[in-house]
């Protein structure tokens, strides 16, 4: 929790003023029993109406004054805690943008969402309660103890016997609650993940009649989370009745000692009522502390999960003064002995390599086709160009400069990337296209759509047409063409098409490749399962289980690469 307090700095004035307002309310509460004792002993006992009215007026003033201070404290604490929560969420979002693809896969999307929403809410709640009650609980307790000693020291000592009982109850509950809350938070990730998988894969679930199976699987995860959360809540719920029991026992002991013990000495009715009020306030303060404990436990568990993300060092960092431009006469793209393995690639052994000893050069304006079986490493190779991952060995160079030496933004400004799975965002068509270039004009967007063969349907629906999350209101081919247009709108030096025409018919695919030929000077990397999509490329790289099985033109590979010849034959090509 302490590490996250830095996000409270912009609101420190409010965070400091709020406890001061609470201090005013607490002093008003501590004065109230004294006024009540005076009213009973001096006003009612002496049958003095004027004195009663004066005391009643003072009590009303103290109540209103305390209420006003309380409202000010609540407002300031809410602004500070909500602002802190917004800062943490902003930091988590920015951190997620800097994490490598491997780091994101390690945490998982559902876990990151839970940490950004649920865990941050837990921290927010704890901070708000801390600001409001940091002075109230101890001042009520200390002030109440002082007033007990002033009113009757012997009764105060009797009351002190019950403090160790309260401490024991608090320790037992905390000991059981903390592990239970940690388990519940972890299982909540599983519930979130199951919901996300079912929503994203609803068509596959229904198509394969797996609805009942998925319901049972979710019910199992939900039941486990419910049991863990219920267990944690039950432990926390025990604290309030235990403290109430201890408080009532303390009041009974005071009443017994003052009423039936001859050695107790005389105590006035007003002072006895004041004494019980102060005793109640002390126990109330302890009860507040007891009820705060579960909230702080949940927040501590959530803060640890948030810090785990914020303190994750990326697997590879950006250079302090990264290169922004490459050599004009160098090849556009070069792989030198590149090897890669998922996980801790630097410590990997050759047997675990996804890519092994990949070498090729691609001149500026050239076209490279990459083909191979499923799992051959085609998409991984494309990701290395963008430096979404780092190689385990070898170098990837763009314009003659290793990608690790580039400023990440400068490197990715050079590249237009179309992922294998079309990724669109909720918003308008224009907003999705401007992801590629923020200040793109309508003319630039239209030109990109025409190149990507998407102008046919974009002209029909318009740039202001709404796109649902993930492009759910578009067909597969429309989504792919729109993502290609998004990459082309920035006129990149290097265009990577990672099997991004798989949903296009052969005619549209041909028109797209013909349009790309008009982009003079642009280097194109086409990853595809179709020979027809890459046969006209200047060079074709054939991958087989992460290794280069062949490199050359279509004709050269037909003569020298049996795997390529087999792929062509399977697709009824010569």
In short:
By secondary structure, the chain is α/β, with parallel strands linked by helices. It is 62% helix and 10% strand.
The end-to-end distance, rounded to whole angstroms, is 66 Å
Question: Level of helix content?
Answer: 55-70%
Global structural class: alpha/beta
Overall strand count: 12
What fraction of residues sit in β-strands? Answer: 5-15%
Low-confidence stretches: none
Shape: elongated
Mean pLDDT: 83
Radius of gyration, taken over Cα atoms and rounded to an integer in Å: 35 Å
Strand sequence of the main sheet, in spatial order?
Answer: 6-9-10-3-11-12
User: How many H/I helices?
Assistant: 20
Largest beta-sheet details: 6 strands, mixed
Set out the fold topology:
Elements: H1 12-44, H2 49-98, H3 101-107, H4 109-133, H5 136-151, H6 153-160, H7 163-200, H8 202-207, H9 211-260, H10 269-310, E1 333-340, E2 355-362, E3 367-372, H11 378-386, E4 393-398, E5 401-402, H12 408-413, E6 415-418, E7 427-428, H13 429-433, H14 442-451, H15 455-461, E8 466-467, H16 476-488, E9 494-498, H17 506-516, E10 523-527, H18 531-534, E11 539-544, E12 547-552, H19 554-560, H20 562-570
Parallel strand pairs: 3-10, 3-11, 6-9, 9-10
Antiparallel strand pairs: 1-2, 1-4, 4-5, 7-8, 11-12
Helix pairs in contact: 1-2, 1-5, 1-10, 2-4, 4-7, 4-10, 5-6, 5-10, 7-9, 7-10, 9-10, 14-16, 19-20
